Structure formats: structure tokens, C-alpha cells
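A quick aside before the break. I want you to see a complete sequence-to-structure record at least once, exactly as it would be stored in a machine-readable document. Don't worry about memorizing anything.
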Amino acid sequence: MPTRPRYPMPDFFRNALNARSLMDAYLARPAYQQNDYIGWVTRAKLEATKQRRINQMLDELERGGVYMKMKWNQG
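That is the input. The structure line, written in C-alpha cells, reads:
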């Protein structure tokens, strides 16, 4: 099975996490979730979509227990 591409963290992404003091919450997530969030946000074609996705990610990190609108229990 091919491995997923690894996405580098863009500056705007890092800045958004730091602005809401959520970098620690982000880094506490498994590597696959970190990578999925970056890929999902950066693949957005429209700026409005990118912003909506990053806001969803930030809200999920802040709330905890949610990943891509699905219940997630940190193990």
C-alpha cells in the first residue's frame, strides 16, 4: 500500500495555530491527523474554503474530542 504524502506546514497554518494558542493541542494529535489537516486545508481551491477549513480545525482542536467532525478519543 502506498504511503500518503507528507505535507509541510505552511506559515499561514502555523500562524493560525499560534494566534489561538493551539500549537500544543495540534502537536498532541497523531501524526496522521496533523498531516491530514494540513493537506485538507491546503488543497482548498478557494480562499473562503481554506479559511472555513482552518477555522473548523482550530475549533476542533480547541474543543477536543473531535477530528474532521467525527468523535475522536485521544488514547
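Two observations worth writing down. The beta strands are 66-67, 70-71. The helical segments are 11-19, 23-28, 31-42, 47-63. We'll return to this after the break.
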